[in-house]
Every structure is written in structure tokens, then in C-alpha cells.
Specification:
The complex is a heterodimer of chains A (347) and B (532).
Chain A (H helix, E strand, L loop, with lengths): L21 H20 L4 E2 L1 H4 L1 E7 L6 H9 L6 E5 L5 E6 L6 H8 L5 H8 L4 H19 L4 E8 L1 H29 L2 H25 L2 E2 L1 H31 L5 H33 L1 H34 L9 H9 L4
Parallel strand pairs in A: 1-6
Antiparallel strand pairs in A: 2-4, 2-5, 3-4
Helix pairs in contact in A: 1-8, 1-11, 3-6, 4-6, 7-8, 7-9, 8-9, 8-11, 9-10, 9-11, 10-11
Chain B lengths: L5 H18 L21 E2 L1 H4 L1 E8 L1 H20 L6 E7 L2 E6 L5 H9 L4 E4 L4 E4 L1 E5 L4 E6 L1 H23 L8 E5 L3 E7 L4 H8 L5 E5 L15 E5 L9 E5 L4 E2 L3 E8 L6 E7 L1 H13 L5 E5 L2 E4 L11 E8 L1 H13 L6 E9 L1 H55 L2 E2 L1 H30 L4 H33 L3 H35 L7
Parallel strand pairs in B: 1-21
Antiparallel strand pairs in B: 2-10, 2-20, 3-4, 4-8, 5-6, 7-8, 9-10, 11-14, 11-17, 12-13, 15-16, 16-19, 17-18
Helix pairs in contact in B: 1-9, 5-8, 9-10, 9-12, 10-11, 10-12, 11-12
Classes of the chains: A alpha+beta (347), B alpha+beta (532).
Chain lengths: 347, 532
């Protein structure tokens, strides 16, 4: 009763000897991760304003924006490097300013006499970075209005130094804690070899995602942390499914060598692995196409991460387990076996 | 696992129906479909990135509060020890304490006794116990230190934040009609989120003013030409931009405080027609104002706001009614602003904006469109893929997915959670992740079928074996999202929220709703082979 031919991404009865390629897979992965670490130090990540502080202003002019006139107008403000980017329609422009040094605030102070005693007192204290951010936003607004009247400021984000440092620390803590949590969870649910295998794989995955951020020049900000966490979650999902099958097969086939057993488990779960990757990939593509400035980078990173996580389940997580558990996994941990052995009557 | 008791079937159907019903308010305006009045019409709030608005993170200057308290203590020490036998020198603020050197160290005990009276009680614990906020100590050499206690500092911080939040609310939303979210963040920060950005500049101005109003007498004999007045007199500028050069010799002593105001309204002066602010005092303020004006008829007095003289009229007759008028060069707008500030009261400490995120409403509308288009397109792609791969069971999975989305939305509605653009991305990823459960189950059923099991047996073991895998993989994702929620901020939290509820509900829809569909179909059609 089939109305149409079914899609089978993985033909039934596929038997690929993945473990043959275990050295190639691991070495390639390690090299890529090492390169990513190198990239992290030079040229380094393009930190977004969440983590670096700074200002992003999105504006829409009544007509097409000519960078040749806007750039000098903004550079004349002397606010450090000005990044201009056009996106969407030619009327839209994205202005990025680095975090302003505190002394910029002096200019706004000079322009405006203190409004009140509090402010007078505040001004006896040193200028703060926070004040400087607000000052720079004011100046850019005025300058945009002067550039062409009717220019709308559609979005402003200004993050000062203290907040960005906190956000960065929090982001890193989220990443660190989730690695630990994964290790603990898998350890608790499986044998320790599985936990270590999963965390090493995650580390290799995460470093590559960081390398991806360096290569693409995508903004590394809170959304990037969300992307990395999601990829980690997705990747660990994949590992859990494969590991689950290995554990099951360890109990089922008591005499099979670990290497064969791992290959069997990967092959058995392969069509699920590919199917889920496909579905998630398909769900994410529209986001990369229509998600707009905010989500485009997130979605593209996710697409990269899905491919990465799928391949690392097969080529990294499984071989690591083979190295760690060559004889140990066989010796007896499965609780049911141990109980069965105990209960067996001695002839 | 394949038998469903009748009550279970009903419960599952009821939950799904309820989910669909409760998800409706997210799409439609109230009363558009004539639901009964008791229906819980709650819906998700759109985040500021979707509907436009501003997100301001304010930092309270705690040091200023502490400095003010220390100043007070120093002044009270002067007053308290005046006329006593105790002689001292070098009274000054050092760090978080006030110190002085006694001429005669023998008097230390007596001095400490007097100085401890200056302490204010701080309530500690739930039972109303209290401790003094000052710790007074003396060295054998006669160095006396008055230090603010740890408890007092913490208490001061909490009170300052709470008071600031209240005043911020009263200033930004005097009528209590705007959807304003004001929340405390950490030890010294306040997060203000307001929809709409038209009055952002006004808001910033209102937040940047402390609005401390005081009434003083002028000292017409003092000489302010050097910029610094004699002791007890401050030389303050006028607030009027037209005579900003004018300097008033204002006595330091505060006669009446702005805290004694009960009301302030903008209005027109009947004679001149210019904009003024009318105010009235409470009973204490009325009495003091009456006393002062009676004793100083013919003298000028000054109304000072944040260190500037708003107006300095001459007292023509005793003012006993407790009402007054501030005139100056006001416009309708500035008179109104001042009235709002005075009604709301003074901020206990200055506020600084440490983080600003503003999104215009049309940009928000664009973001909503982008989110909705992405979700629809993503859903269609996934549906095609899953039906193409698994046929009828794939279609069941799609029904499960639809129920998944409805239930997620229903929970978000019930919680009145905030939906952000990353939150919409979360919906899409949930779609991908919850499909995983269906794929796991279907693949298992296929495998079991290939092993030669009967349809019922294959389904039974398919669900059973896939279940532990589903739980494992979903739990790891949930842990991640919890961490993201705790450490993330702003819109990213929305991502964690939607994925969390999406995954929780997907466990129900993928393993129970879809199973019920499959079982019902199987009992009805009585196939000998499964369409997998």
C-alpha cells in the first residue's frame, strides 16, 4: 500500500567498516582542532559587543546610503574605528563602533553644562566608560540626523566594559559547566569510558566551531554561545544514541570483538543518525535564508555543527571508545550479566 | 505498552485538545472567537526584539549612598559632641568609616557612649530583631572609628535598590498604564524594559535626574563673587538658561525637604499665563513652611532642585495653606516633567546606564515576519522529509509534531513567557530535535519488523527500546538549556525557554500521542505488515 517510493538515505543492510578509518578520522579531527586553536590565538575571534563592549547602531535612511559620504561624516566624530555594513535594502546600514574610551565622555560633558548638583558631583569623579558609550550614541544619532534628515535609528545596542566582562564570564561558565554536566551524566548513565569518550569528542567539536567562527568572521557573542551549546546538545544526543546501541549490543553479543561490535552499532543506528541530521538540517535552512542579520550567523553555524556532530559521532566518539575500552568494557560491567552469572546454578 | 485504557485515551485526547485551545490566544486578539469569559486568555509576550522597545540596564551608585550616610554621621558627630567636655581633632571620612582623634584618650568610653547614640537600627532576620548600623571602636591612643557594619551596608544596598526601583516606576509610568518591566539584577543593578521607543530620550532624561528638591533661605549679605560663599552658604546657579550666570547665595540649612510634598501638578499662572508647577505640602511641611515664612516676611527664599535654584521669590506674607508655586521659564513639557519628578520623589542615588539595547518597532515587525516565515518553511520541509521517509507512520509523526508545537505554545501562553527572535529559532530546533524521537521509534520498528516480528510485537519493542534512548538524549539537551537560561541574558534566555518546553512536550507527543495513533490504526486496519 505504498503510494510513493520511500526515501532511504541509508540503504538497508549497510555494513561499512568505520573502524578501519579510525586513525584517519581521529588524526584529521585532531589536526583540525589544533588548527582551530591556532586560529583562536591568531587572528582570533571577532568578539561581538556582548563580550567586547561597544556600540551597534542600525539605521535606515530615506534613500540609498552612500558609504562614501557617510563614512567621513562618522569618522569625523573621532570615535575610533567605525565599521559600516550594508544589509537588507540599500537604505539600511549597520554601524559598529568599538568600546569607547572613558575620555570620550569629556566631550559630552563639555558640550552640556551639568544639569544638577548630582551631576556636578558625578563630574568631579572620573569619567566612566559607561558614560562614554552613551555619549558616543548621542553623537552618532546627531551625526546621522545631520547626514540626511529623516534617517531613522532602528536599533541601538551599547554595552559598557563592566557588563561585557560579566557576560563573557557567564558565557564561558555556561560552556564549562555544560561540559562537566555532560561528563557526569554520561558517566552516571553509562561506563566511564563512554563519558570520557563523549567529552573528548565534545571538546574536539567545540574547538572546531570556534575555528569556524574565526574563519567566517562571525560575531562571537551570546548567540554564539547559544549556538555552541545547541551544537553540543545535538552532538551529545547523537553520541548517546550510538552508545546506547553499543551498550545493548555488548549484552546481546557476548563474544563479538569490540571493534566489530562498534561497527555493527554504528551501522544499525546509521539511518537514524543521518535521518535526524537531515531533519534538523532542513529545519535550520530557512533560518539561514530568512532569519535576518540576527539569526543568519546562528543558523549557518548550526548547519556546520550538525554536519560536524554527525561525523564526530561516527569517526571520533566510537574509535575513542575502542581505544579506551578494548578489554575493559568486555570484562563485565553490564549489571544484568553479572547478576545472571551469580544466579546461575553451579552444576 | 500497546494497550491504552479507555481513561488514558480520553486523557491523551483531552490534553491535546486543551493544548490546541490554550495555544489560540497567541494568534488571535481577545474576544475574536467568542470564548466564554472564564477562559484563561493568557498569551506569550513578544520580546522587545520583536515588538520594538528598549532595554536599559541601570547601575545604582552605591558609593554615593554610603558617602551620604558617612557625611551625615560626620555632621551628627559635630552636633552631638558640641557642648560636651570631649575635645577632638581630625574628624574626617576615611574609606567606609568616620575617624577622629581624642585629645584625651581617657574620655574614650564617654565618647563611644555618646557616639553610639548616633547609630540607626537595622532590622535583621524575620523576627524583627535589630542591630545598630554603626560599630564604634577606640584605640588606647584615643583614635575613635565609626564604621558602617556589614549588615548595615547590605541593608542599605537592598533598600536603595528597592526605593530606586519604585521611583523609576513612578517616574516612567506615573499613571500605571504602561507595560513596564522593572527588575532587580544582582547587587546594584536595575533592568528597565519598556515597549516603544518614542519617549526613550525623555525616559533617559528622567532617569538621569535625581530630583532632590529643597527649600532654603537666601543670605543676602554673603558675597558670591569669588564663587565660594562663606561658611554655611552655598553659591548656586540659577536653573533658567536665560540667566545661567546668576549666582544665588543660598544658606546650607534645609528648611523644608521635597520629601514633604504630597502633590505637584503643571498648570498655568492665572495672571501671566506662563507654565508653572503647583505643589502642596503634607502637614509637617505645611507647618514648617508657615513658621519660616512668618518669621521671614520680606526676605527672599530659594527652591533648589539638584543644586540649582529653580526660583527665588520674596516672601510677601506668611504662607500657611501649605501650597506653593514654582515659576521659571517652563514650557508645557518641562513643567510636566518637573511635576512628574517631584511627585515620584528623589532617587536615593544616581543611576548610570551600563547597557542599552533598543529596537525600533518596524524592525521588530521585520523580525516577526522572518521568524514566522522560517518556522513555516522549516516545518514544511521537515514534514515532507518525514512523510517521504516513513509514509503513513511519518504522517502520524507529523500529527505528533503539530501537537508538540501546540502544547509548547500553550505552556508558553500559560506562563505568559516572553517570545524572542532566538526563541523562534528555538521552536525550529525543537522541531528538528523532536523529530529525532519519531525517527528513533520508526527505525526501531523497522528493525524489529525485519527480524520477523508481528506488527504488534515490533511496535511494542520498538517503542520500549527507543524510549530509554529518547530520555537520555533529551535530558542532556535539557541540562544544557538550563545552564543557558541561568548564565544567558536577554533574548538568549528565550531560546532556552522554548527549547526546554518544546522538548518536554515532545516526550509526550512523540512517545504517547504517536503511539496511540499507531495502535488505533493497527487495531482498525488489522494489517499483517507494518507500513514502515
Amino acid at each position: 500500500m505504498q503510494l510513493f517510493p520511500r526515501l532511504r538515505l541509508v540503504p538497508d543492510g549497510t555494513q561499512i567498516q568505520f573502524m578501519k578509518g579510525r586513525y584517519a578520522g581521529l588524526i584529521l579531527s585532531a589536526v583540525l582542532s589544533l588548527l582551530s586553536v591556532v586560529l583562536y590565538f591568531a587572528p582570533g575571534l571577532n568578539y561581538g559587543i556582548d563580550f567586547k563592549g561597544g556600540i551597534v547602531i542600525e539605521a535606515r535612511a530615506p534613500g540609498p546610503v552612500e558609504f562614501s559620504t557617510l563614512r567621513p561624516a562618522l569618522s569625523a566624530l573621532n570615535l575610533g574605528q567605525v565599521g559600516l555594513q550594508q544589509f537588507g535594502s540599500p537604505q539600511d546600514v549597520l554601524i559598529r563602533l568599538e568600546r569607547q574610551r572613558a575620555d570620550v565622555a569629556e566631550r559630552c560633558r563639555a558640550k552640556r553644562p551639568p544639569a544638577n548638583e548630582q551631576e556636578r558631583q558625578a563630574r568631579q569623579r572620573a569619567v566612566t566608560e559607561e558614560e562614554a558609550q552613551q555619549c558616543a550614541v548621542e553623537e552618532v544619532r546627531a551625526s546621522l540626523e545631520a547626514y540626511r534628515s529623516g534617517t531613522q535609528v532602528r536599533r541601538v545596542e551599547a554595552v559598557g566594559g563592566s557588563v561585557s566582562r560579566e557576560l563573557f564570564v557567564n558565557g564561558m561558565m555556561a560552556l564549562g559547566f555544560s561540559l562537566l554536566a555532560m561528563l557526569a551524566y554520561i558517566w552516571f548513565r553509562f561506563e566511564w569510558q563512554f563519558g570520557v569518550g563523549a567529552v573528548i569528542t565534545l571538546l574536539l567539536d567545540v574547538t572546531k566551531v570556534v575555528g569556524f567562527y574565526v574563519l567566517t568572521g562571525f560575531q562571537f557573542n551570546l548567540t554564539a554561545i547559544a549556538a555552541i551549546l545547541t551544537i553540543m546538545g545535538y552532538s551529545i544526543n547523537d553520541k548517546v544514541v550510538v552508545y546506547d546501541r553499543m551498550r545493548e549490543n555488548l549484552r546481546k553479543y557476548k563474544t563479538m570483538s569490540l571493534r566489530e561490535l562498534i561497527d555493527l552499532s554504528i551501522n544499525e543506528t546509521l539511518s537514524r543518525t543521518i535521518g535526524t541530521s537531515m531533519a534538523t538540517f532542513l529545519a535550520t535552512i530557512p533560518l539561514a535564508l530568512f532569519g535576518g542579520e540576527a539569526l543568519e550567523e546562528f543558523a549557518i553555524t548550526m548547519l556546520f555543527g550538525i554536519v560536524l556532530a554527525t561525523s564526530s559521532s561516527i569517526f571520533i566518539a566510537a574509535p575513542i571508545l575502542l581505544f579506551l575500552g578494548e578489554d575493559k568494557l568486555r570484562r563485565g560491567p553490564p549489571a544484568e550479566d553479572a547478576q545472571a552469572a551469580d544466579a546461575a546454578p553451579i552444576p | 505498552m500497546l494497550f491504552f485504557a479507555r481513561w488514558k485515551v480520553w486523557t491523551i485526547n483531552a490534553v491535546c485538545a486543551l493544548g490546541i485551545l490554550l495555544s489560540i490566544p497567541a494568534f488571535l486578539p481577545r474576544d475574536s472567537i467568542g470564548l466564554p469569559g472564564w477562559f484563561p486568555w493568557r498569551h506569550v509576550n513578544l520580546g522587545l526584539d520583536l515588538r520594538g522597545g528598549s532595554y536599559l540596564l541601570l547601575e545604582v551608585d552605591m558609593q554615593a549612598v554610603i558617602r551620604e550616610r558617612l557625611n551625615n554621621i560626620r555632621d551628627s558627630v559635630l552636633v552631638r559632641l558640641r557642648g560636651t567636655e570631649i575635645r577632638y581633632s581630625g574628624l574626617a571620612i576615611r574609606g567606609q568609616s568616620v575617624q577622629m582623634q581624642l585629645r584625651d584618650p581617657q574620655q574614650a568610653q564617654e565618647a563611644l557612649r555618646l557616639l553610639r547614640e548616633l547609630a540607626q537600627p537595622v532590622t535583621t532576620g524575620a523576627f524583627g530583631g535589630s542591630t545598630p548600623d554603626l560599630v564604634a571602636t577606640a584605640t588606647p591612643e584615643g583614635l575613635v572609628t565609626l564604621e558602617l557594619s556589614e549588615v548595615a551596608l547590605r541593608d542599605k544596598a537592598t533598600k536603595t535598590i528597592e526605593q530606586s526601583m519604585e521611583i523609576v516606576r513612578r517616574r516612567l509610568d506615573p499613571e500605571g498604564i504602561r507595560e513596564l518591566q522593572i527588575a532587580r539584577q544582582g547587587n546594584a543593578r536595575i533592568l528597565v524594559q519598556q515597549p516603544g521607543i518614542d519617549d526613550l530620550e525623555t525616559s533617559k532624561r528622567l532617569l538621569g535626574t535625581t530630583a532632590k528638591m529643597t527649600f532654603h533661605l537666601l543670605d543676602s549679605t554673603a558675597d558670591c563673587s569669588t564663587g565660594r560663599g562663606p561658611a554655611g552658604v552655598n553659591c548656586l546657579p540659577g536653573s533658567d538658561s536665560r540667566d545661567v550666570q546668576r549666582i544665588y547665595p543660598v544658606r546650607q540649612r534645609v528648611e523644608v525637604d521635597g520629601a514633604n510634598l504630597t502633590d505637584a501638578r503643571a498648570g498655568n499662572n492665572a495672571q501671566t499665563g506662563e507654565w508653572v508647577v503647583n505643589f502642596s505640602f503634607d502637614s509637617i511641611g505645611t507647618r514648617r513652611f508657615a513658621d519660616i515664612s512668618r518669621a521671614n516676611v520680606g526676605q527672599p527664599f530659594a527652591i533648589v532642585l539638584d543644586g540649582k535654584v529653580l526660583t527665588a521669590p520674596t516672601i510677601r506674607e506668611p504662607i500657611t495653606g501649605g501650597r506653593g508655586q514654582i515659576s521659571g521659564s517652563f514650557s508645557a513639557g518641562s513643567a510636566n516633567e518637573l511635576a512628574v519628578l517631584l511627585r515620584a520623589g528623589a532617587l536615593p542615588a544616581p543611576l548610570t546606564i551600563v547597557e542599552e539595547r533598543t529596537v525600533g518597532p518596524d524592525l521588530g515587525a521585520d523580525a516577526i515576519r522572518a521568524g514566522v516565515v522560517s518556522i513555516l518553511a522549516g516545518a514544511i520541509l521537515v514534514l515532507i522529509f518525514i512523510v517521504w521517509t516513513y509514509g503513513l507512520f511519518g504522517a502520524f509523526a507529523c500529527i505528533g509534531l503539530a501537537a508538540n508545537l501546540a502544547l509548547t505554545l500553550a505552556i508558553l501562553n500559560m506562563l505568559e513567557a516572553t517570545l524572542t527572535l532566538p526563541g523562534m529559532a528555538g521552536v525550529l530546533l525543537t522541531l528538528g530535535l523532536s523529530v529525532d524521537a519519531n525517527i528513533l521509534i520508526n527505525e526501531r520498528i523497522r528493525e524489529e519488523t525485519k527480524l520477523g516480528k508481528t506488527p504488534f510485537a515490533a511496535m511494542e519493542s520498538g517503542f520500549k527500546r527507543a524510549f530509554s534512548t529518547i530520555v537520555d538524549s533529551n535530558l542532556t539537551t535539557l541540562i544544557k538549556m538550563l545552564l543557558l537560561y541561568v548564565f544567558g541574558s536577554g533574548p538568549v534566555k528565550g531560546f532556552a525557554v522554548t527549547i526546554t518546553f518544546g522538548i518536554i512536550t515532545s516526550m509526550f507527543t512523540a512517545t504517547i500521542v504517536v503511539r496511540l495513533l499507531m495502535v488505533t490504526w493497527l487495531r482498525w486496519r488489522k494489517r499483517s505488515a507494518l507500513p514502515v
